[in-house]
Write a structure and sequence with these properties.
The protein is of the alpha/beta class and about 400 residues long. It has helices at about 80-85, 90-95, 100-110, 110-130, 145-155, 185-200, 220-230, 245-255, 265-275, 285-290, 300-305, 325-335, 340-345, 350-355, 380-385; strands at about 5-10, 20-30, 35-40, 50-55, 60, 65, 130-135, 165-170, 205-210, 235-240, 260, 280, 310, 370-375, 390-395. Strand 10, helix 8 (about 245-255) and strand 11 form a beta-alpha-beta unit. The longest helix is centred in the middle third of the chain and has 18 residues, at about 185-200. The termini are close together. The structure holds zinc ion. Zinc ion binds next to loops.
C-alpha cells in the first residue's frame, strides 16, 4: 500500500466504541498504517502531496470485522430448510442425523480445491460488503485429516484477496457418527489428538466448542478448554444459544476472547463476562433463521458495559448469511442495538473478540483498513436491509 493522504472525509473513527466523527477529516497512511487522523484544518502541510485520495465528503469507517463464521464447508442445506418449513425442528433434524452431519459428509468428501472454490465465493461476498478481517472456524470435518484440511483451506483463502483471516478450531462442534453414543471418547480425541495436531501445525489461532444439550456438556467443554490452554491457544464458546448451561460463565472462567450467541445467558453470566473482559458476540442471523424468540440480554450487557459484537455466523444450517451489514440491520431490528452499537460491534469490539488490538478503529498506529461509503450518516450502514457495499475498500493486504 503506497503512502497516501485521504482528504475531505467524514470520518467515523469508532474511537471509544462510539461514532467519534471527525468532520472534514483527513487521514495520512504510511507503510500500511495510519500515521495521523484529524480535521483538515489541523493537517500538517508537510503531509500534503501528490498521493491524495479525495473522499468528496463521503463517510469513511474502519474496515469491518466478521468475528464469527463457519464459511468453509461443502454443499448446501436448502433441502433441510424446506424440511424445517414443513414442520421439523432444528433439534429434531440434528437428532435424526441431519444438520451438521450432512454438511460433514459433503465437507469430508470435498477436495481442498473444491472446498476453497465454494468457500471463496462466500468470502468474496463478505469482502464486497466491506469485511477486511474475518474469522473462520473448522467444525465440518470432525476427523483429524478433515479438520486440518478445513483450517488449511481457511488459511489459503487469504492470499489472493484483500482480507485478513483468523482461524478457529471447532472440533467440538458435534459428535460425528463414528463416535455416536461415545461423546466422551470423541472429546478425548479432540483434546489428545486434534488440538495438539492443529497447534503443532500452527493452523489455529483459537479453539471453540458448542456447549449445548445437542452439542457438548459444560464438563466436556471444560476438557476442551483445558487442552487448548495446554497448547497455548485462546478459547471462544458457542454459549447459551438454545438453553442456559452456564456457558457464558464457563467461557469467562477460561478468559475466553468471546462468548457467542448468549440468547439464554442470565444476569450471573453477564456479570462473569464483565469481570473477565470477554466480548459478547450476538448472532442475529441464526436467531432470525431459526425463528427464535428468546432475546439475548442486550440491556443487561449494555448496563454492565460488556462490549457487544455482531457477526454473520455464516453457516449452512442456521445462518446462510454473507452480508455483515444485513447482520447489523438484524441486530438493530431484532435485538434493539443502536446503529452505533452495531457499527462498534463490527469494527473495534469485533477486532477485540479476535484478540486483534491493531485494527477496527481509525487512529494513529492502527492498520490502515478503511472503507469509503456512498453515505454521509453512519446510521445508513445498519439501516438498509439488503446490506450496503462500500465504494472503496482500502487495506494493506490489497492486491
Ligand atoms: Zn457459530
Amino acid at each position: 500500500m503506497p503512502r497516501h493522504l485521504l482528504v475531505n472525509a467524514r470520518l467515523a473513527t469508532l474511537r471509544g466504541g462510539r461514532y467519534s466523527i471527525v468532520e472534514k477529516g483527513a487521514m495520512a497512511v504510511d507503510g500500511g498504517k495510519i500515521e495521523w487522523v484529524g480535521p483538515m484544518a489541523e493537517l500538517d502541510p508537510r503531509l500534503r502531496g501528490d498521493d491524495e485520495l479525495d473522499a468528496h465528503g463521503a463517510l469513511v469507517t474502519p474496515g469491518l470485522v466478521d468475528c464469527h463464521t463457519h464459511l468453509v464447508f461443502a454443499g448446501n442445506r436448502a433441502r433441510e430448510f424446506e424440511m424445517r418449513l414443513a414442520g421439523a425442528t432444528y433439534e429434531e433434524i440434528a437428532r435424526a442425523g441431519g444438520g451438521i452431519v450432512s454438511t460433514m459428509k459433503a465437507t469430508r468428501a470435498a477436495s481442498e480445491a473444491q472446498l476453497a472454490e465454494e468457500s471463496g465465493r462466500r468470502l468474496d461476498a463478505l469482502i464486497e460488503g466491506g469485511v477486511t478481517t474475518v474469522e473462520i472456524k473448522s467444525g465440518y470435518g470432525l476427523d483429524l485429516e478433515s479438520e486440518l484440511k478445513c483450517l488449511r483451506v481457511a488459511r489459503s483463502l487469504e492470499q489472493p484477496r484483500a482480507v485478513s483471516i483468523r482461524t478457529t478450531l471447532l472440533g467440538a462442534h458435534t459428535v460425528p457418527p463414528e463416535y455416536r453414543g461415545r461423546s466422551d471418547e470423541y472429546v478425548s480425541f479432540v483434546c489428545e489428538q486434534l488440538i495438539p495436531a492443529a497447534a503443532k501445525a500452527g493452523l489455529a489461532d483459537a479453539v471453540d466448542a458448542f456447549c449445548e444439550g445437542i452439542g457438548f456438556s459444560p464438563q466436556q467443554t471444560r476438557r476442551v478448554f483445558e487442552a487448548a490452554r495446554t497448547h497455548g491457544l485462546r478459547v471462544k464458546l458457542h454459549a447459551d444459544q438454545l438453553s442456559n448451561l452456564g456457558g457464558a460463565a464457563l467461557a469467562a472462567e477460561f478468559g475466553a476472547l468471546s462468548a457467542d450467541h448468549l440468547e439464554h445467558t442470565d444476569e450471573a453470566g453477564v456479570q462473569a463476562l464483565r469481570r473477565s473482559g470477554t466480548v459478547a458476540v450476538l448472532l442475529p442471523g441464526a436467531f432470525y433463521f431459526l425463528r427464535e424468540t428468546k432475546l439475548p440480554p442486550v440491556e443487561s450487557l449494555r448496563r454492565h458495559g460488556v462490549p457487544m459484537d455482531v457477526a454473520t455466523d455464516c453457516n449452512p444450517g442456521t445462518s446462510p448469511l454473507t452480508s455483515l451489514a444485513t447482520a447489523m440491520n438484524m441486530a438493530c431490528t431484532l435485538f434493539r442495538l443502536t446503529p452505533e452499537e452495531a457499527l462498534a460491534g463490527t469494527t473495534i469490539h469485533a477486532a477485540n473478540a479476535l484478540g486483534l488490538e491493531d485494527r477496527g478503529v481509525l487512529e494513529a498506529g492502527k492498520r490502515a483498513d478503511y472503507l469509503i461509503w456512498d453515505a454521509e450518516d453512519p446510521a445508513e450502514l445498519a439501516w438498509t436491509i439488503a446490506g450496503r457495499r462500500p465504494t472503496r475498500i482500502i487495506t494493506p493486504g490489497a492486491h
